[in-house]
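Severity: low
Component: inverse-folding endpoint
Summary: output formatting inconsistent between runs
Steps to reproduce: submit the following structure tokens with default settings.
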């Protein structure tokens, strides 16, 4: 419906009316608000364009009907009721406001602030009503958003862990919010209207800060309130004229932070204490060598205090310590490493750690530890180890004792020391060595004069019997001691097994360190081993002397056998031969047989004597070992046996042989005896093979034949003197193989037989290589181990 159609129903608005009314009519239509003209009872007379546009139906459907039943309110019964009530009140002459929610033709909800105003005539009677509605949807949305923002802000302010406040120029609170007010026992806003000077009269720090802020100064302060600490910022606010308008402030509870700061300070203090007292030298320096930090008691070793090196240059402070500075430069190049240096009087192990930032070395951290004592201990141990070599070489008890006394004085700086030994003739321990200091103090020339025996009943003897070391811290307080009037301060008593006792002492009371006790223990154990070795050497020397005497007697026997026994034997043989020549015709066959027996026995005895001489001379007439071409020796031997080889119709094969370290003649003797043995016992036309193989530490020689072999039960005994095998039936002396055994033994080798009956026998012997030969010879000292 257009306005013309409306006018047909409501009457033309401008017909016959003045221009003013027409203008009002134009405004009525052009206004952007909802306007309806009603009669005093709420009947709709006409509505403007906006009202019509809000209705989804034609005006004819609602014009003339109750306003509250119009299409704008039909979606809400309660709203219709409120509109009807408003119409009734307006009909009575009252301006009435109402709120409504309308649904546009597009289905959009629209909020309306409406009024119903009465229009009266000259007599004051209500002749019509004007209903007006304004779309406040957008305004409502903005108000709702503002309200939400305000609510969030209030929530934030009320729950922020701070105190927000404002003071007027007189110091009176005009604002107080924040969750932290609870810690002061206040509610938000409770302080408003109160004077800060009265509320915090007993907090001078607060009063001072407020007074300064009221004078225009921005103030930050930290003040204690009970058990709590608050950090507060006071910010003056000025008006356009520069006059102080207010002071706003914010306080934050920093109690926990302050506790952490205190803990950090305490930790820092403890760390500083550690750094100041740690037995290390801790330092940092930039890549130019400028020392930034130097801490630790380890600095005392080079005579400086903690912090004293800071600000100095590394290359100037340690000028001359080239190795130390070279390692520092290596660290500035990025190398992390550890090195040991002598720095003045100190031996230090230093760890260099480069600190890299953005790919470049920024500085070097160094940690140096004084290892002087450790190195001194190592050097002591090295000295003891070196002295051990001397102790090993010591051949007598006195030599061992003298070496130990020297070490006690020079290495341990314990000059009041001595060694006691057991005495076969008594239960005492007798002094066998004393340091020069002891003998000088006692004005004595010998240990026996300087020191008393250790006798049964004394503490020293009790320690010897227990076998455990004892440290006497103050010898003067020791009861039942052997030397109660001696100048000894501290004494370490260490038993030397069954050989005696070591006393290591100092003139002053000075308890030895664990390291010194370890050195003394090592020294004592080495001394005990040396004494044991010296005792064995003495026994061996006695045995050697006895053996030499035995060899002398054997040589004497050999001399007698070769000269004194052989001469009568040759005389017997000669006279028997003479008797056979001169009286042979007068004797019968039985007498001739007896003469032959006598001559044969004499010849056999002659052979045995010669073999015995050869056996005895293996040691007594031996040559020094030399480099020997075994092939040449064997060739010479085979040549010397040429007739025997021909007689036996034998074949002797010699394979390649090595060069060895041996007694040339004795090696030839062994080959000759073994080849001769094969020629004699290997049957008719034997084949004899001489060969050798090389092992890691020796050469193995073999003399093999293809004879009947040797039974297993005879393979050991045929190397013994005067023992013969079952195939020895030719009148041999039973000494040849014993000679081989003795010669091989002298060379440090072994000899044995490998045989299979009916197949042949192989005589094997070994000659150790150089070095191995010497070791084996040492093991068979005396020249004869069999």
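Observed output (run 2 of 3):
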């Amino acid at each position: 419906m257009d306005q013309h159609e409306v006018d047909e129903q409501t009457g033309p608005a401008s017909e016959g009316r003045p221009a003013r009314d027409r203008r009002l009519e134009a405004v009525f239509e052009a206004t952007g608000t909802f306007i309806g003209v009603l009669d005093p009872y709420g009947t709709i007379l006409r509505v403007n364009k906006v009202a019509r546009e809000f209705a989804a139906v034609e005006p004819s459907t609602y014009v003339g009907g109750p306003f509250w039943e119009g299409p704008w309110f039909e979606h809400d019964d309660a709203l219709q009721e409120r509109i009807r009530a408003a119409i009734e009140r307006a009909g009575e002459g009252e301006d009435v406001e109402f709120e409504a929610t309308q649904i546009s033709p597009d289905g959009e909800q629209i909020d309306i602030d409406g009024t119903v105003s009465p229009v009266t005539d000259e007599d004051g009677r209500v002749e019509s009503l004007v209903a007006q509605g304004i779309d406040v949807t957008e305004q409502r949305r903005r108000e709702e958003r503002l309200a939400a923002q305000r609510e969030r802000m209030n929530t934030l302010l009320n729950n922020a862990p701070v105190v927000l406040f404002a003071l007027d120029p007189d110091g009176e609170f005009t604002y107080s919010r924040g969750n932290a007010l609870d810690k002061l026992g206040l509610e938000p806003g409770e302080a408003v209207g109160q004077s800060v000077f009265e509320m915090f009269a007993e907090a001078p720090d607060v009063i001072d800060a407020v007074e300064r802020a009221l004078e225009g100064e921005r103030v930050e302060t930290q003040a204690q309130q009970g058990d709590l600490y608050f950090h507060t910022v006071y910010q003056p606010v000025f008006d356009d004229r520069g006059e102080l308008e207010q002071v706003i402030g914010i306080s934050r509870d920093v109690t926990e932070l302050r506790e952490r700061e205190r803990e950090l300070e305490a930790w820092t203090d403890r760390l500083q204490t550690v750094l100041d007292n740690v037995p290390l030298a801790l330092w940092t320096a930039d890549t130019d060598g400028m020392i930034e930090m130097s801490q630790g008691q380890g600095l005392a070793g080079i005579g400086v205090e903690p912090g004293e090196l800071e600000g100095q240059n590394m290359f100037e402070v340690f000028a001359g310590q080239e190795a130390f500075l070279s390692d520092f430069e290596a660290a500035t190049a990025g190398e992390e490493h550890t090195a040991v240096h002598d720095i003045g009087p100190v031996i230090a192990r230093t760890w260099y750690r480069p600190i890299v930032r953005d790919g470049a070395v920024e500085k070097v951290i160094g940690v140096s530890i004084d290892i002087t004592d450790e190195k001194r201990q190592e050097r002591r141990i090295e000295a003891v180890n070196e002295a051990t070599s001397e102790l090993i070489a010591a051949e007598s008890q006195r030599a061992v004792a003298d070496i130990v006394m020297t070490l006690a004085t020079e290495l341990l700086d314990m000059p009041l020391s001595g060694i006691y030994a057991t005495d076969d003739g008594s239960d005492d321990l007798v002094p066998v060595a004393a340091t020069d200091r002891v003998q000088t103090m006692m004005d004595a020339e010998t240990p026996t004069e300087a020191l008393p025996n250790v006798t049964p009943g004394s503490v020293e003897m009790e320690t010897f019997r227990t076998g455990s070391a004892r440290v006497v811290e103050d010898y003067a307080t020791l009861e039942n001691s052997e030397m109660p009037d001696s100048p000894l301060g501290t004494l370490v008593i260490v038993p030397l097994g069954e050989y005696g006792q070591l006393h290591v002492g100092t003139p002053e009371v000075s308890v030895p360190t664990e390291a010194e006790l370890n050195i003394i223990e090592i020294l004592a154990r080495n001394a005990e081993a040396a004494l044991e070795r010296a005792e064995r050497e003495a026994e061996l020397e006695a045995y050697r002397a006895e053996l030499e005497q035995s060899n002398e007697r054997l040589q004497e026997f050999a001399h007698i056998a070769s000269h004194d026994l052989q001469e009568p034997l040759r005389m017997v043989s000669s006279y028997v031969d003479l008797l056979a020549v001169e009286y042979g015709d007068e004797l019968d066959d039985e007498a001739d047989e007896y003469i032959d027996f006598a001559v044969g026995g004499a010849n056999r005895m002659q052979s045995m004597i010669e073999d015995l001489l050869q056996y005895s001379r293996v040691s007594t007439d031996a040559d020094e070992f030399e480099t020997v071409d075994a092939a040449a020796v064997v060739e010479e031997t085979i040549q010397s046996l040429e007739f025997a080889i021909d007689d036996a119709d034998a074949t002797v094969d010699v394979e390649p042989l090595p060069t060895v370290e041996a007694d040339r003649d004795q090696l030839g003797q062994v080959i000759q005896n073994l080849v001769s043995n094969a020629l004699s016992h290997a049957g008719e036309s034997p084949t004899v093979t001489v060969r050798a193989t090389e092992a890691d530490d020796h050469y193995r020689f073999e003399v093999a034949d293809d004879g009947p072999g040797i039974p297993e039960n005879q393979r050991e005994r045929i190397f013994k003197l005067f023992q013969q095998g079952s195939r020895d039936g030719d009148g041999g002396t039973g000494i040849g193989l014993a000679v081989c055994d003795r010669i091989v033994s002298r060379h440090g080798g072994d000899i044995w037989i490998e045989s299979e009956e009916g197949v042949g026998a192989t005589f094997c012997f070994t000659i150790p290589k150089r070095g191995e030969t010497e070791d084996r010879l040492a093991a068979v000292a005396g020249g004869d181990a069999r």
